[in-house]
Amino acid sequence: MDIVEQISSMLFSTIHDVLPITAIIFGFQFAVIRKVPPNLFKVIIGFIWVLLGLSLFLLGLEWCLFPIGRLMAMQLTDPAFIHAADPVQQILSAVSEIDWRDYAWVYLFAFMIGFSTTIAEPSLMAVAIKANEASGGAISIWGLRIAVALGVAIGITLGCFRIVIGDPLHWYIIAGYIIVVLQTTCAPKLIIPLAYDSGGVTTSTVTVPLVAALGLGLSESVPGRNPLIDGFGLIAFASLFPIISVMAYAWFSEAISKRQQRLRQTIENISQSDEEKNNAL
Amino acid sequence: MRGSLRDLTPILVVILFFQLFVLQQPLPNVGQLLLGVIFVILGLTFFILGLEQGLFPIGETMAHAFARKGSVFWLLIFAFALGFGATVAEPALIAVANEAATVAAAGEVIAATDDARESYANGLRLTVALSVGIALLIGVLRILKGWPMQWLIIIGYIMVVIMTAFAPKEIIGIAYDSGGVTTGTITVPLVTALGVGLASSIRGRNPMIDGFGLIAFASLTPIIFVMAYGMLI
Fold first, then answer.
1. Which residue in A19, A49, A185 has the most chain B C-beta atoms within 10 A of its own C-beta, making it the best mutation to test that interface?
2. DSSP labels for A68-122?
3. Chain segment A171-187, per-residue pLDDT in tens
């Protein structure tokens, strides 16, 4: 009974969230386009699936992932855990120098949680499916998803490192922008808009709550950091680095396919010249 | 179903690994946990199903209908309304706006009363929604005109860098983060389908080169607008 109640309340809040979009879409459809879409019934069923799916998804996350994820972020950033190997350090931690190497587990957790939540991110799946379709299969769904997930993982890890070190956020972001601009000049043209897009799609339902918890926990536990100022910024990292990693992925896969082509050509040339030799004999 | 399970496996592995080997604590509430996992898998499966049946087709048919109708004015109005409407109710944005209000109150930018905080948070939300609306408008205009993506983005980056130099320090982190939180799980598929649909129904446009990029605008303009908001208030 309780479960049904929770599902229905989650469903209700999801419907509430998507009501404006639905109103705009159907409003324009009927008032401006003035045509009933060809498969209206199927589309409505599709919307119902999306609503139901999203509600179940969010409720499931609320039950299994978010509490554990938040708890783990807290436990991993707890000074008692970080300096567990060195009790003297534990007492001195408030006054002594911060050593960024103490936070190794935090970086590993940041990397792995960034990667794994991005793989499960529904909006990234949507974009990957669409990109696969639009490119006629040239961009593989999994290739894109893994490239983006690696970008998020590296971004969040670097973001955690920044919180520990205490550097200003904007230097990192501006450096990232410069890398993006440089990459844009040499990346394959087809990938550029998709790469830029992949920065925005990575951070939604799954990633944001966990990453925000990690940032807040870390900035609370590192001495001298203010959670109100230093706790932000991880999402910015997570939306910048996928741009870099997707362009790098495209660049690599183009380079590899070019090399294979060249290799194939040389093999063909060799066998051709062999044939010619045989013919001559 | 099997696909959703595979998508979820990495998270489960990470959590189990850290819980059992690093933190060495027992898992709390295993029953509810398992039920949650099942819900997530079911939810993801339903979502993908509905995506292919509902969100993608409606985005595409609307793009084709607008392209055939040839009314640029209504298309741009639609793009703006979609961006604004999708963002103003986005739960992640509401959360970030409230946090930003707390930061502003702590930094003595606004009075530390609930009224002041609420009006600050609402103002911020409207600012971000406005910026996403404008982003989609510019993005659709770009698809129609065939402008190259990278120049617009680089102009945006330059604006971000310039604004960073002048914006109050407290707002910078929130501004940078706000770019990532605006685009929700329903908005992304719709907007992507709209862009690709438009690009494939206009002659001379390539769905890969011109169809993508709307989301990128929607995650860049909020950074600029939120810093502007911080400077004005």
1. A49
2. HHHHHHHHHH-HHHHTTT-HHHHHHTTTSPP-GGGGHHHHHHHHHHHHHHHHT-H
3. 999 999 999 999 999 88
